[in-house]
Structures are given as C-alpha cells and as structure tokens.
Structure prediction request, 219 residues.
Amino acid sequence: MGKKNLLAKGACKPGAKLCGFTDSLSILNYAPKATRSFTLITQPKIISPLFHIKQMGASFFRAYSMCELVLRAVEFDDKMSQVYDALKNSLIIMDLMTADDEAASDKVLIKFQLFFLDYAGFSLNFDNCCHCAKRPGEILIYDADAGGLTCSRCAIGRRNTFDISGAAELIVELNKEADLNKIIAAGYSLNKTGAVLSLLKSHIKANLNISLNSGQGFV
Ligand SMILES: [Zn+2]
Prediction:
C-alpha cells in the first residue's frame, strides 16, 4: 500500500471497448504492471464504486476530506496500512448510507480524523495546559496558534483561543466507543458535532500543518 502514480491505459478514451472505470473515488483491486517508464493498472476490479457517496453532496465532501487528509499525510509517510484500511472502511460505511444524512457522515468523518490524529501521535490532550502543563480548570480553552489546550492563566494575551468544553466532552465520548455504527445511530447535537469538526480542523492545521480545503464549505 501507499500512494502510487499509475497509468490507467486506455481508460480515458470514451467509447473504447476496454474503457476502464476510472471514476474518481472508487475502491478497486488491480494488478500493477511495471514497464520501463511507468506502471500500468491491469485487471482492474471494482470492489466498490461508492455510488451512494457520489450521489450525495454532503457525504461526498466529507469523503473527499478524509481522502485529502490521507493524501497530504502520505507526503510524510506512505507506509500507513492501518490508515488506508480505516479510510477504506470509513468510505464503505459512508457509502452504505442510502439517504444524504449530513449528521451521520459528519460522525464518520470525525471518527476517522480522531483515529488519524491518534495514529499520527497528535491526539487531543484535555488533561494538561500545553504551555505550563498544569491541569486546566472547569472551562477548557483551546489555543489554535499553539495547537493545544491552554489553562485560563496561559490563555491571557493569546488571541486565537476558544472554548472547547462541549467539543471535548463529545470527543472523550467518541474515543470510548469503537463501534462506528453505534456512533452513527447516536443522537449528538449538531452544535456539538460542528464544534468538534471545527476543533479538529484547527488541531490538524496547527500540529500537522495540513489545511483541509474541502472542509471550508461546511465547517
Ligand atoms: Zn497554563
């Protein structure tokens, strides 16, 4: 596994008899065939064309956001088989949704981003201030410039801070639940999932220096 540049020979010619299915965002198996100058995709077999995701606007943007995160991370490390598996499973679960359920696809995206941060070693730490390491007070404040939790004392004078108490509560809950189907079925408030998405976006930007473009439309 890893990011690969491949040539899907003949696939782009409309009307060609051997015209392959190279629609973006599909899960497929193939046999790579190396030639002198490039590697060809041969014997492609679609495992899932992710039809539902493509038909649903909300899910599509979230699916794209997950792919975008992995694609950017691959620039640093392309041996992340667990991440590819998680991406594939998340896409398949998202594709099983037959209605364009924005809230449900948000939850798949959040769970994937939490997994990804944990894998990359950048899980959110709600126990210590990232500046003085002391335990924070009742209200949890996030410092988007520092990319971590800050206590109220260290937050003084810092401009890019926001209250993440609600988001933190939901993240702790989501981290405890391994079953994605249970998470999808649970009725979390849209305000809270929105706050979590916004926090994760800031955290990913600050710690991994990855700005997710596709997130701009909905976070
Ligand atoms: Zn502090």
Notes: The chain has a mean pLDDT of 86.
